[in-house]
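Pilot study result, target chain (259 residues):
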Amino acid sequence: MAVITREDIIKPENLVYKRTSLLVDCALSYCPGCGHGTAHRMLMEVIEEMGIQSKTIGVAPVGCSVLAYEFLDIDVQQAAHGRAPALATAIKRLMPEKYVFTYQGDGDLAAIGTCETIHACNRGENFVIIFINNGIYGMTGGQMAPTTLPGMKASTCPYGRDTEIMGNPLKITELVATLPGTCYVTRQSVHTPGNVRKTKRALRKAFEYSYAKKGLSFVEIVSNCNSGWKMTPVQSNKWMEENMFPFFPLGDIKVPAAE
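Predicted structure:
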């Protein structure tokens, strides 16, 4: 019987999966179970497969997204809190040959950055907004965010969000889908292998549409924040499925007319 060696297993024809080379070779510093790491991997796989590493510029502001600089082997520019779409607008207009994206959390994009988000979408700027929605301010202490669900607990609403006092959660993705400048608006997740594959396809479409000057592409990724939610990773994914998805349903919301 022939002995199968490690060299046999790692031959290219036997390779099932390999880590994308566009992720920096260091350990992720996100909380164990967080969806950011998987979102990073999908994003970098798309950029690698499209062969656009040297043509891509990311913009990340304040929040957990600020850590992206440490892990993505592409050019990434920092922006002030909430101002990533404004900076991405400048970059794309100055260098229209580049693929440009922002990587933002819900507190950044839908609170302090609401103005920049809405106007960039309305203008139809040709870049991609990647929106990680975990319904809470994850990095700064678990405060209530614009996307915190009714009754959902946070450090600033320990008894749950009371909509009579604190208002209703903001469905920013549905809102931007109504604007004429957006060409592709979708909501995905990365908590199961099937959903990861859907998110990867959505990210690739977003880059292709925006580069083709169809307008702004907006990809929301509903994620967990097990640390902020005070749950284990498994519990947080279950809670997300039972509570976040009914309020923020997954799927394409707006696609180009040709689709």
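One observation from the pilot: Strands lie at 56-60, 75-78, 99-105, 128-133, 182-189, 216-222, 251-254. A full batch analysis is planned for the follow-on phase.
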